Amino acid sequence: MPATVLERSEQWRYGIIFDAGSSGTRLHIYRWLDSETARQKGNSKQLHALPLLETKRKWTKKIHPGISTFGEKPDRVGPDHLEELFEKARKVIPSDVVEETPIFLLATAGMRLLPEFQRNDLLKEICSYTRSHTKFQLPDCDVHIQVIPGEVEGLYGWVAANYLLGGFDSPQEHDHGKGHHTYGFLDMGGASAQIAFAPNATEAARHANDLKLLRMRTVDGAVAEYGVFTTTWLGFGVNEARKRYVEALQKESGAIDTNVLQDPCLPNGLSTTTKGDVFLPGSKTVNGQEPYLNGTGNFEECLVKTLPLLEKDHICEDDPCLLNGVHVPAIDFDVNHFVGVSEYWHTTHEIFQEGHKDKAYDFNTYQKRVNEFCSQDWDTIEKGVDKHEWGKKVDEKTAIEVCFKASWLINILHEGIGIPRVGLEATPDIKNNGTKKLLDNAKDKGYTASFQAVNQIDETEVSWTLGKMVLYASSQIPPSDPNPLPVGFGSNVPGIPPDFQYAGSKSLPTTHNATIITESDHWHNTLFRSSSPRRIPGFILFILILSIAVFLLCGHTRRQRIYARLARRSGTSPSRKRRIFGGKIPFLRSGSSLGSYEHVLEDGPTTDNFELGSYEDGSDDVDTSDSSSSSKASGWATPRVRSSQAIHESRERFEQLGNGLGLGLSPNPMNRSGLIGRTDSRERIVGMVEGRRSRRGSPKRQKELGLKALIED
């Protein structure tokens, strides 16, 4: 019975991942119980396990081609490619949790082959389109929309495989010996191949610097850490390997423009272009304008031709190495049991294992079936395809490619990685090889074979996208440790290494007396989300901070004008307004304020000691004016002093400023004449009326006081 909307809101969390590969983009949707609900409903075993994720086949969708084909037209990737997947996601995700559902688009090998500027433009356009056309949670594009390295893709796949097989949650049931209970992971796509595994204890200690520290969190909040080696071989996926193979055939022919290239990896009687397209007689390829491949159907020779593509003779700078001079710790196949996905499954099971899906990989049996198929002429194979002799999934394109793919996988597995040839070499599981019993044992006791190709485990597809979402769901669990470490992975050092990659968009450690902040908490989620109780106060605070910043940047003169306008509207003295903002807040105080200037002004003489009047040209009373050229003072009129004695005393007070007098620092109180000199300074009366600028300071005053002319703002 489907859950109600209310149940979804309270119990389920959802996550969306786009696997943007070289051949297409595939949508994956997962869900899991909210942490609080999982703790309430879980038994003891479930509490000590990772979050239980669910997915359904109808929650996935793949479209072609890959996003890398939009490198020269990034503005079309949204409407022409992503929108179809967004529409599918909207139909699956309940509407009331859309804004809480994180979305990830992680691109792999196809995007890695694009020029950097095209990659960057595409990623920016994807981010922009997603934010403007969906409401899914996308707080940080650098984390949620990116091209992931092959090593990361392999690590996510390793998590997915061990998560489904039970290597994490039930180690005692998956004991491979020597204290080892996890499985190795092999993945191969069109452009690259990956390997990920946890070495045995000896190799892990010897190659500690080569490992990744992986940290997860179980439902009860406990930490689970693993040391994993992962690497990738770009150009070693089946499609890129095929390109290198054709180039090798051309070089071997002795001339790059040879018309016919004999290809033992194609069925006898089949001719194709170098790109793999079947052509008819009379085409421009046959006429010699382009070389073409002529199939000879010799699988043994095909194995020999593809072997050099492993580049085993490449210089190894850090021994030991496997393919292309890439360092890999020694693999102990007694305890390191591998599962292979993607092409490892499709090539070994979708054609040669049709009707034998319960059988494990068997080198002897597999190679026998490949030989039988690839030695047939093309007309016979074509008729078998039409009759669905090898299954409904086997079309003409699959039949053309499978012989090369099979030879490539066999060489990668046995000559490259070194997996024992089960059926030919003595291995611990040789007696059970090639039977349904082996697969049954694998499900009950762990995969005992050195290698097993898989597609689904317990009806869930083994995909690196699952591993990514397991990490993310794990990061949402409140930690039990009062000083928790974040969920994610990085260099194999304690704590949080500099290159640590968080499982979500953000991770903030919490203390036992602080509110829990998970990796995905973000200001974007709380400040602007309508359901957040902090939305309105947060917005007001943001506006207040912005206003203060603008106020501080507007300059001293403009601030004075603001004071004057506020004073006129409220009927408050300008000096009083200035005291409120400039006297009490240190960083707002005028640069001309000295000592306890404002306090002295408040306690000083009353307005009976001076009057406002106009400035008279030729007057020697320069200390009471801020102008030397106009008969009318700017702003407020300049105070006219009633007593010449007061003027004289004022000058004496200013001449003693250097000694601290008149600054409020002397034990002797300032007299009235000193106050007058302070009051009629330029900084005190500048721009106080109608927002007009003050005129230049008096030259005579500058000479007497040792001040430079003030430059207007």
UniProtKB/TrEMBL annotation:
Residues 701-713 have a biased composition (Basic and acidic residues). InterPro entries: GDA1_CD39_NTPase. This is Nucleoside diphosphatase. It comes from the Eukaryota. GO terms for cellular component: Golgi apparatus; membrane. One of its GO terms (biological process) is UDP catabolic process. Keywords: ATP-binding, Hydrolase, Membrane, Nucleotide-binding, Transmembrane, Transmembrane helix. PROSITE patterns: GDA1_CD39_NTPASE. Residues 605-647, 690-713 are annotated as: Disordered.
